[in-house]
Write a structure and sequence with these properties.
By secondary structure, this protein is of the alpha/beta class. The protein contains eight helices and nine strands. The N and C termini lie far apart (76 Å).
């Protein structure tokens, strides 16, 4: 129905499609917390999200990482993420030498399967640790699969829809700040 451009759906219509009683459908949907509008029904996108969340399909703290090089490996092994509820559950790469390897207990998969697995597994956080030249392509693939938040370690600004959250990690900028602060500290007169 969503693909056909339908915006709203009623309990009656759902019940007809599933050969159920509309009252039972209404009661079941109430468990998700969504509220329909009289004579209009439920916003279809909100209803789909409410059902997916209720069923536990929205794993907002699980992430896929793309780029299993040195930095990607380090991120995959960092246990501190768990303290904040983040778990990198799989890594992806295009290098045949890396595909199939286990790194910190996580398998490296072929990046060509990324979009499909994002969609099927309901993953909403993507981590990009690739060279700048391929980061935008990876971001596009993530967005196409359903990623809603990207943690970008690639040295490039990504162009994504306004609905996608991007957090850029600027390692070189952070190094510049550190170097500048060190330089300033070394220039400051010593107190006696």
């Amino acid at each position: 129905m969503k693909a056909d451009g339908q915006k709203f759906i009623s309990c009656t219509r759902i019940a007809e499609g599933l050969d159920l009683d509309p009252t039972s459908v209404r009661k079941d949907l109430a468990f998700t917390g969504i509220i329909g509008r009289p004579r209009i029904g439920y916003d279809l996108v909100e209803l789909m999200e409410a059902i997916a969340t209720f069923l536990g399909w929205r794993k907002s703290k699980e992430a896929f990482l793309v780029g299993a090089g040195d930095l990607g490996r380090a991120l995959m092994g960092y246990q501190g993420f768990r303290e904040h509820g983040l778990e990198i559950i799989a890594a992806f790469d295009k290098d045949p030498a890396l595909i199939g390897q286990q790194i910190h207990g996580k398998e490296v998969l072929d990046v060509t399967s990324l979009s499909d697995l994002i969609s099927r597994m309901g993953i909403f956080i993507g981590i990009i640790v690739t060279p700048a030249a391929v980061a935008q392509e990876v971001a596009d693939t993530m967005v196409a699969g359903g990623i809603e938040a990207i943690w970008n370690f690639a040295p490039v600004r990504l162009v994504v829809p306004d609905t996608v959250i991007v957090e850029n990690v600027e390692l070189s900028a952070s190094l510049s700040v550190l170097s500048s602060r060190l330089s300033d500290a070394r220039k400051a007169p010593t107190e006696q």
